User: Fold these one by one.
Assistant:
Number 1:
Amino acid sequence: RPIMHLYGYHRHHLPADEWLAPEELMSSFAIDLAAARRLIDQERNFPYPSPDNLAVDGSPLLDEVAFWPAHLRYTTDPEVDLPAAFGLSEDQVLATGLAPLTRLDQWPVFTVALPTGGVILIVHRTQHSRSLLRGQWVQQAAEHQVDFWLAPTDGAGLPLGTLAAELRGPALRWPELKAIAKAAAPDRREIARRLLLLAPMLGDKHVEAEAVTWFAEAISVLGGLDRSVPAVRRAAERLTYGNECFRFATWREEDGIWVCDGVDSPRNPDPLIGLPA
């Protein structure tokens, strides 16, 4: 297994416990302070799997056509036949594309270089979550999510967004996504890969119409169907307008920094939810 450089990702993705407050547990489960603190200690000390041990290089999957609709499945509406845009059936995507992304023993990691330096990591991770039931920690069914992690050339990494039961994003405006993809020119295949790898983090109410053409071309390059095929066009349109929770996000420039008004965007300047400037 190749050793993956995770750019600080593991430091962030140990389970957070900020939401665990003894007073809230006491109230919710009618327990005393000692019992509440014991539950918090159990969660903090639980041996969650380490990304350092599970991360694997996902780049070989990029040549599998079924990978792309599997990777993008959280980005488009259910009525959009995304597999058809890549000339596949849903069963083929589940068996060939999604299966390698949802293993408990391996977390595929993909890297997109940024034209200004640094990288964005895309991590598909699957693990068992835990929840409190009647004052006891209970293991839940395995959950799959996709993390997008910004790793600058220096300093600590930062979470850009997450695709899971609770979405976090958007993280990119269309001009930014386009610039990251264009930086791979003249390699059309690499341009397409970058565009589709980062497409789930696009959220821009004022996205330019050209984005549909860009996405259609990317799907055509990686899937093999002509970009004028109706299924390809429909998928491209849906990718352009993004996840339904992100598509109405607007952006503005403040002191030379582009910020987002999305209530779940890490690039929202609200100090309660956003990243540092």
Number 2:
Amino acid sequence: MSRRVLAIDPGREKCGVAVLASDGRVLVQRVVTTAELEVAVGTLIREYEPTVIMGNGTTSAAAKARVEELGSEVILVDEYRTTDAAKCAYWEAHPPRGWQRFVPRGMLVPPVPVDDFVAVILAQRFLEKR
């Protein structure tokens, strides 16, 4: 098993991807369109030679098949409540400013997709269980 983990949060329009080292350091974190998933993941697989995991939610069966066509086995993992955790992680990384800092973070909506944070959380959970 690889010392690095590539996590994918599949979606209809966009996907979160993240590569984490075995110690939990985030090496790559980004959101890609679903149309460019194979290209983005293929590049990361060649560069990092990771274990590939994917959230078992929206469109996971189709995305898993597309990634496995690249020659890598994909392990499906539970993504229960990862979106909520990702919103919290977003606000930790990008604290609210101005009037928003007075609003409870649970009531704020991130201004950008958080699929990449979901991918990081999936990888962190996977590494914790290893």
